[in-house]
Amino acid sequence: MGSRKSFKIAEIVDSSFSQKKCIALFHEYAPPNDPETIGPEGMEKFCEDIGVEPENVVMLVLAWKMEAKQMGFFTKSEWLRGLKDMECDSIDKIRNKIDSLRSLLNDPGVFKSIYRYAYDFARDKDQRSMDIDTAKAMLQLLLGRMWLHYSSFHQFLEQSKYKVINKDQWCNVLEFSRTIKSDLSNYDEDGAWPVLLDEFVEWLSLQQNFPNLKQSFSNSQY
């Protein structure tokens, strides 16, 4: 009876969150010359310790949890915010949360929030728009496995004139991927889609055999 009680107490202690331990963990990755911020080197070591590649989508979800402002950096306040919410003050506890972090992407509402967050998180803070190479990398991370036309869209961006993606275009790509059928039959060229997506649909209709769309665009000004 006594040993069972001891086990339960140990379990409660283990599951509790210690801010002191969490801060001590932070300082294992923050450099001495900037003790308030984990930079790229510390981030690489952190990823290694939790067994996740830096470009894994789990790192984006973790950054979203922390409300991190800049890719490749965690401030102490961001670290505390995210890890306190997750009740993690050790590497083992963070490792044990990886599957649940990944599973958040299965919730459409949460996914939309993470997708929108990714735009401001990944873009160069000196620019209002996201450069096209960063956009392609982030789209691959977020939509690569779930959007049938992702590879075609990537191809389209490769050969297009676009050098940057603005936030409206970014958000509409997600809506397009969720609402437009694989044969594009419900795409309305007179709808409120950005020109970027009109051009993508026109380009795709010429690449693949969508006769109705071909006819429609041949009668338009494109």
UniProtKB/TrEMBL annotation:
A GO cellular-component term linked to this record: ubiquitin ligase complex
Domain of life: Eukaryota
GO biological process, one term: protein neddylation
GO molecular function terms listed in the Swiss-Prot or TrEMBL record: cullin family protein binding; ubiquitin conjugating enzyme binding; ubiquitin-like protein binding
Statement: the UniProt record of this protein carries the keyword Amino-acid biosynthesis: no
Pfam families per record: Cullin_binding
Residues covered by the DCUN1 domain: 17-205
Keyword Ligase: no
Keywords from the UniProt entry: Ubl conjugation pathway
Function summary: Promotes neddylation of cullin components of SCF-type E3 ubiquitin ligase complexes and thus regulates SCF-type complex activity. Function promotes cell proliferation. Neddylation of cullins play an essential role in the regulation of SCF-type complexes activity.
Name of the protein this chain belongs to: Defective in cullin neddylation protein
Organism: Oedothorax gibbosus
